[in-house]
Design goal:
mainly alpha, two-stranded antiparallel sheet, 14 helices, globular, Rhomboid family intramembrane serine protease
Length: about 300
């Protein structure tokens, strides 16, 4: 199977959001790498700078008003290999956890909302903080704010989940997330203060998103609705006709909402399966149900 066929297969599935986010970031990086090489070789390097202005997030308000789409495009744009490498590795590791327990749509919601929160804090800091106003106009690229949102969301969701780190050993992800936040805070006094501030915006969004979800409020609903509208527009699908019906009464003791609780009998069956075959024998749906039950 060719590379193009693999890419097409990645986007043909609806339950493949993590891989789709990874592929989009990598494709943008590769295309920019090739375009930069061609334009530089042909002596048209200025055209590459014009292209980057269409993708990078400007820190000045006039520039943002001229390029409002950069509030999102910056989060899929990288120019350095190590930058995209570490971002994609973190997105894969922590995004897998979010996707496994909350599903594809909420992973995308966290990524998009994290990017927007990081962009908002980045622009506000350059326009309100005197120390940064002298550098007003510096643009930002990279998925770091969105990835930080996924890291903190995963740590808020499953604080005691353990990763085995090279040369360190098993570490609970709440400590990894805390280290990421502390490094960003320390980096505000460094060479890239705006980027570190954007990381903090993503971290705050990841924490608030999970806390609100646990209280029954899904902040990502507008993102999901916008995604469905764009998908229907691209694929020419007819809009669903909504019919209003009287809601049926829910069974006694049941809960509705983003984290509705499964029945106790079902949880007992899952726990029995864990004792018999181990946690890894659970399906994705069973792991989600077990997590939901832990929120009681």
């Amino acid at each position: 199977m060719s590379i193009f066929a693999d890419i097409q297969a990645t986007f043909s599935r609806r339950d493949n959001a993590l891989n789709q986010l990874l592929v989009i970031n990598v494709l943008v990086f590769v295309v920019l790498l090739v375009v930069e090489a061609i334009l530089t070789f042909t002596g048209a390097g200025v055209a590459y700078e014009v292209l980057m202005r269409q993708l990078a997030l400007p820190s000045d308000l006039p520039g943002l008003l001229r390029h409002p789409w950069t509030l999102l495009t910056y989060a899929f744009t990288h120019q350095q290999f190590l930058h995209i490498l570490f971002n994609m590795l973190n997105l894969y590791w922590f995004g897998m956890l979010v996707r496994e327990y909350l599903g594809d749509r909420r992973l995308v919601s966290i990524y998009i909302l994290g990017a927007l929160a990081g962009a908002l804090l980045f622009v506000l800091s350059y326009n309100l903080l005197p120390r940064l106003q002298v550098h007003l106009g510096i643009p930002m690229v990279g998925a770091s704010a969105a990835v930080t949102a996924a890291i903190v969301a995963a740590a808020t969701l499953l604080p005691d989940y353990t990763f085995s780190l090279f040369l360190i050993g098993p570490v609970r992800i709440k400590y990894i997330a805390a280290a990421v936040v502390l490094i960003s805070i320390a980096g505000i006094n460094g060479a890239n203060p705006g980027g570190q501030i954007a990381h903090l915006g993503g971290a705050l969004l990841g924490f608030v998103y999970i806390r609100q979800l646990q209280r029954g409020r899904d902040l990502g609903r507008p993102v999901v609705a916008a995604g469905e509208w764009i998908s229907a527009l691209l694929h020419g699908r007819p809009r669903l006709r909504v019919s209003h019906r009287s809601p049926q009464a829910a069974p006694a003791g049941s809960k509705r909402g983003p984290l509705a609780q499964p029945a106790q009998e079902e949880i007992d069956r899952i726990l029995e399966k864990i004792s018999r075959s181990g946690y890894e024998s659970l399906s994705k749906e069973e792991k989600q149900k077990l997590f939901k039950a832990s929120q009681q």
